[in-house]
Amino acid sequence: MRRRIESCPSAKQRILERQAKDRVEAEAMLGKFKGFLAGRYGNLVRAWRKDLDPDGDGKLQFTEFCQACRQMNFQGKLKALWLSLDKDDTGDISLEELDPEAVAHFEDFDRILTYFFNHLDTVWFTCLDLGNTGRCSLQEFLFGCKVLGFARNSMNLFRYLDIRNDNYICIEQLEVLSLPKAVSEEDAFQCAKETRMSCRARWEQSLKVAFGGGLIHGWRRGFCGSKRENHLSEEPRTSVGAAAAWVSKRIFFACGQSY
Q1: In this structure, is residue 53 part of a structural domain?
Q2: Exposed (0-12), middle (13-18) or buried (19+): which is 222, by Cβ within 10 Å?
Q3: 215: buried, middle or exposed (CB in 10 Å: 19+, 13-18, 0-12)?
Q4: Number of structural domains the chain divides into
Q5: Per the count of CB atoms within 10 A, which of 20, 56, 191, 202 is most buried?
Q6: 195 and 249 share one domain
Q7: Which residue pairs from 149-152 have beta carbons closer than 8 angstroms and sit at least 24 positions apart in sequence?
Q8: What domain range is 227 assigned to?
Q9: Per the domain annotation, does 54 fall within a domain?
Q10: What is the value of pTM for the model shown?
Q11: How does the average pLDDT of the chain come out, rounded?
């Protein structure tokens, strides 16, 4: 009777099996790490900015990463965790490898701001701190994002910026973005004030030219579709220019005016 010859895995097969097992272990460790950070800090961005990358250089090497994890008292296999983060084997990691969705929020917001503004201070006084209180609440931030036309989740973006978790942000917390601070805060405030006034003036003129008559007449003819008594509170009708009209209306009210 012939004995069954059992084939033994080759060295290559054993290596591949071991690598597959390491990947599964690494992904499990990454899930554990993200859960730990979310539970302790509220979100991954806050953990990154406060304790993983407190100097703000945007990169972590393996030794820095291990030191930060130990200081946070994270219990886990750090080598496996590192392999799950540094998938491109560059020797360092960034926030994008920890939370790519958050980075996408920052990049989109940054793209909008750099298109319209030259300095963080002008953004701050024009869209986020209209009352010049030195801080921006969640509601003010959501309003500002709507004015700017930010398409992603504005509430999530606010949480990413609110590293103190006190439901307010200040201008220093926006320094994670690429726009520089203005040389003179006073000049930036004056620029923001003039920007709101000039936007309102251009908007009024465009409305009058497009629809004739006065400002109220132009608004009602161009953007209102309901009964006359609802014209002051309704949003613009859906059309090619609806998005621009909504932004214009918000800027108009941001000037502290009524019509």
Answers
A1: yes
A2: middle
A3: middle
A4: 3
A5: 191
A6: yes
A7: 149/112, 149/243, 149/247, 150/108, 150/109, 150/112, 151/108, 152/104, 152/105, 152/108, 152/109
A8: 185-254
A9: yes
A10: 0.69
A11: 79
In a domain, 202, yes or no: yes
Instruction: Flag whether pLDDT at 56 surpasses 70.
Output: yes
Q: Which residue in the block uniquely carries the two structure tokens 């926006």?
A: 174
What is the model's pLDDT at position 9? 67
- CA angle 245/249/250 to nearest 5° reads 120
Are 170 and 204 in the same domain?
no
Could you tell me what percent of the chain has a pLDDT over 90? 41
Give the torsion through C-alpha atoms of 28, 29, 30, 33, to 10 deg. 130
Provide the 8-state DSSP code for 174. Answer: G
**Tokens of residue 245, six digits:** 């009209």
Distance CA 226, CA 56 (A): 51
pLDDT in tens, 165-185: 999 999 999 988 998 887 777
